[in-house]
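Researcher: Structure prediction, please.
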Amino acid sequence: MPETTGQTIIITGAGAGIGRALAVGLVGRGAHVVAIGRGARGLEETKDGCRGPGTVECHVVDVSDAVALELLFGLIVRQRGGVDLLVNGAAVYPREVLGEMAPESWAAGVATNLNGVAYGCRAAIRTFPPNRAAVILNVGSFAYLGPEPASTLYCSTKAAVDSFTRALAVELAFTGSPLIVNEWMPGIYRTRMSGDTGEDPV
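Model: Predicted structure follows.
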């Protein structure tokens, strides 16, 4: 893993699963981690699992709230001088067949899995220092390449994250932005979304 000592790293979806494992690992490697999640309890458990030499701060924010994300990112930049890495990892996997899914549930899933990624990137573009390079990792998934039953919401939004990331990379290059955006597909890890199958995310 590249040197992370002293870096400022924002992780959404840090209250559980891969997001929590990243937070714990990066704090252990000397980074200052800004852990974002929708639930205070999950973030508190993440914080309890973090051991220095780095540090962690937790913020309860819904990634589907573009205004709240931008305000928080702006605050972090003012306090830290900039951000080195943003990991857009917040996601849901409702495992419902489309015909039985309430329209509100579909909209909420899209708001988290796709809009949350887009709003995180948007907030970074609008608040990160224009003269300082930073990396954005949008967490993708191989799931949409081989869909399972009851995965329409998850697979379609992860396919959209793939397309979104490619398009944004072109856009950032065109505008001369110092931001670098990539999709990260971590594979199958043992989390609530995977049905507790796969490797330990730690």
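Model: Residues 133 and 195 are 37 Å apart (CA to CA).
Researcher: Thanks, that helps.
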